[in-house]
Amino acid sequence: MSERKFNVAVAGATGAVGGAMLNVLERRDFPLNELRLLASERSVGKKLKFRDSEIEVGLLSKDAFAGIDIALFSAGASRSLEFAPAAVAAGAVVVDNSSGFRMDDDIPLVVPEVNPQAIARYKNRGIIANPNCSTIQMVVALKPIYDKVGIKRIVVSTYQAVSGTGAKAIEELREQVKAYAAGSPLQKEVYPHQIAFNCLPHIDSFLDTGYTKEEMKMVNETRKIFEDPAIGVTATAVRVPVFYGHSESVNIETGEKISAAEVKELLGAAPGMKVVDEPSLSIYPLALDCEGKFETLVGRIREDESIDNGINLWVVADNILKGAALNAVQIAEIVARDYL
Ligand code: NAP
Ligand code: 3JM
Questions:
Q1: Helices assigned H by DSSP within the chain
Q2: Which atom of ligand 1 is found nearest the CA of 41?
Q3: Can you give the pTM of this predicted structure?
Q4: What is the pLDDT of residues 96-130, one digit of tens each?
Q5: How are strands ordered across the β-sheet holding 273-275?
Q6: DSSP assignments along 63-90, one per residue
Q7: Is the CB of 78 under 6 A from ligand 2?
Q8: CB of residue 130 inside a 6 A radius of ligand 1
Q9: For tag attachment on the chain, is the N or C end more exposed, with fewer CB atoms within 10 Å?
């Protein structure tokens, strides 16, 4: 490891993902020289804790990136589209958490456990895209199976935590639960329906096909990451009243037969994965158990007896960590180690 230290900017530092980025940079001891925190004018002057000090938040603007080596963006897609090119022009490599650039042909879409080689293509435009949270944890779990026997089709249903919508949604669930317990009327602003004690089959906006954009992110991003346009993917994305941790029921049709025992062994040895699968002891991955963890948890591994070559999995990860901040910092670590 070289001795070099890097100047890193976090755009969206005051948000749910931005806060987790600070936490991950600290936990992984990223080789930092300067850490620059950026957000909207609402937050300018606010101080955020990092290691033993406090860092003042500056304004996200086109001239905020002078001297920055790596810029981590999590301030929404429109801010990425507006400010990431300016960060690149100032000499930074951008790791973008939004959907703004993910499907651009000349921008790599990267999960380090799955396609780290794609990072080299950042030189096209200076930007590397981080996939959607639901895609990341699914492809981490599927990669070893894909490499061993191929995957023809994926049917996935998600159970997604409110933290995926941001800081305001975390507050909305907390307030609704409190109001319910107090017998007061429940207020809703972030979601179109009450989220407490409910499940909403609606994440991001609806398309004319009847699918949501969130569902199509899983379809299109999975094909791009596996570089396999032929893989069939169909998704149903559901918001559930959980604070942290997305859970997914994943059904796959493989190219060749593979047993549940073989899948368990493969995934047990896979990077970034932890098998949690002792159903007779009521042990399986739980959203509550993944909070704060870097690993993607997998369990309920079993054969789908309704088809010749089918497997069912239950995949759980901290959506703010592996689904966003951790994945972005892992990419930044590779950029710093291998490319700068
Ligand atoms: P959040 O808690 O609502 O935070 C939003 C952040 O963006 C805050 O720091 C906010 O600053 C900043 N921001 C908003 N409008 C801005 C503006 N006009 N100029 C400058 N900064 C602005 O949301 P979050 O959950 O952290 O998510 C942030 C973004 O990350 C999402 O919009 C999404 O694109 C991406 N994301 C990706 C994944 C993934 O799956 N990879 C998951 C979640 C989120 P203020 O505090 O000053 O308002
Ligand atoms: C996760 O631009 C925005 O308002 C951001 C919406 C958003 C996204 C997105 O589309 O970038 C919120 C939460 C994501 C995502 O990861 O795709």
A1: 16-27, 77-89, 133-149, 167-182, 213-225, 260-268, 287-290, 326-338
A2: 47
A3: 0.97
A4: 999 999 999 999 999 999 999 999 999 999 999 99
A5: 232-239, 151-160, 246-254, 310-317, 296-303, 273-275
A6: TS-TT-SEEEE-S-HHHHHHHHHHHHHT
A7: yes
A8: yes
A9: N
